[in-house]
Every structure is written in C-alpha cells, then in structure tokens.
Amino acid sequence: MMKIRHYALATVLLAGGIGMGTATTMRFAHGQPAGARSEADEGKELFKRANCMGCHKWHGGGGGGYGGDALSLRKTELDRDQIIETISCGRPGTGMPHFTRDAYDSGDKCFGLTKKDLGDKVPPEPQTFLRPNEIAAVTDYVLAHVKGQGEPTFAQCQDFFGQGSRVCNTYKGKGEEGTGAPAKQGG
After folding, report:
1. Binning pLDDT at 50, 70 and 90, where does residue 37 land?
2. Which of 7, 59, 67, 83 has the fewest Cβ atoms nearer than 10 Å?
3. What SS3 class is residue 176?
4. Environment class of residue 186 by beta-carbon count within 10 Å: exposed (0-12), middle (13-18) or buried (19+)?
C-alpha cells in the first residue's frame, strides 16, 4: 500500500512538473521567464500607481501644471541612492510626499529627523505607500527611461501610455515617426 502511494505521488509530481516545464518553456520561447515582468515595466506601473506623474508629469519633466511645481527628473543630477532617499523620505517643506510608511516617526529613517523636529515642514503622506523594493523599481525606471532623456518624444509617450493613445498626438511630427530623431533625407 505504501509503495502505491509513493508511486501515485511521484506520478502526480512528475506530471505537474512536466506541465509546469511546458508552460515555462513556452514563456521563455516568447522572451519572458514564467511570471516575469521587466523591471522597467514594474517601475513604470509603480510610477503610475504612486501618482508620480501627478506632479512630475508622465515624462518626468516636472514643472507647473497638473499637480504641483515638481523638479525635472529628466534633468536631475541625483544618483540612485539620492533618488531612493528622496522617494522614501520626500522633501521637507515641499509637496513631495514620503513614500515610506512611518518615515519620520523614530528619527532613524529620514535625515535623522522626526515629525516633532520638522513641525509643519513634514512631507505629506502619499495616496499609497511603497515598499523598499518598489521604491527601488521606480528609481531604476527613472534612471533607465527618464533621467537624461532630453525632450519627451512620441515613442516615449506611446511606451508610457500604450499604442494609439491620443495623449501622444502632441508629440507627433518631432522627427522620424515622432521619435525625435531627425527625418531621413531621400527615399
């Protein structure tokens, strides 16, 4: 009886493993490991979910407009650690929220300061808090796809909003296929 149970268990595990292997192989064949999303996709989705675009705009250019007068992430000189700290702790005395829960409760997280130290200069709380790995993903997205990118392009807009988004019509005609690249001469 014990042998039959072991045999049945082994058969179920083997069959399940083959099925999982097939699904994994199929995903790898399409260029994505099983259940994987690119870090850029994750960072971009978190940028949207955390409403970074509410102040920095979709392209990270900041400025006035819809939500605040945020600094340009395209022109920032901050490095990775500084961006992580800014997202985590916000900017005291400004509208930049702190995305780390309890950021100023104990004085050991953000600039060595507490809410009591900052008084009315405590950065606001966000609509949604982010975990450290999510803050890192947003940071990596900004570094790879926003910082140093120059003026926003049609291609970047479509990458952010998706193909066919009418929001991107503003960026059409900026060079070849709206990408910002110079148009090719001749045919």
Report:
1. low
2. 7
3. helix
4. exposed
Separation CA 136–CA 15 (nearest Å):
38
What does the alpha-carbon distance between residue 91 and residue 87 come to, in Å, rounded to a whole number?
8
Q: 34 Cβ partners below 8 Å, 6+ apart?
A: 20, 23, 24, 27, 28
User: Would you call 187 helix, strand, or coil by DSSP?
Assistant: coil
Give exposure, 15-39, as e/b (b: 16+ Cβ within 10 Å).
eeeeeeeeeeeeeeeeeeeeeeeee
3-class secondary-structure state, position 63? strand
Measure the CA–CA gap between 136 and 34, rounded to whole angstroms.
22
| Right CATH for 38-150 from 1.10.760.10, 3.60.21.10, 3.90.226.10, 2.130.10.120 | 1.10.760.10
Strand partners, 70: 63
Classified as helix, coil or strand, 174 is: coil
Q: C-alpha dihedral over 23, 25, 29, 34, to 10 degrees?
A: 60
Residues 111-168: tens digit of each pLDDT? 999 999 999 999 999 999 999 999 999 999 999 999 999 999 999 999 999 999 999 9
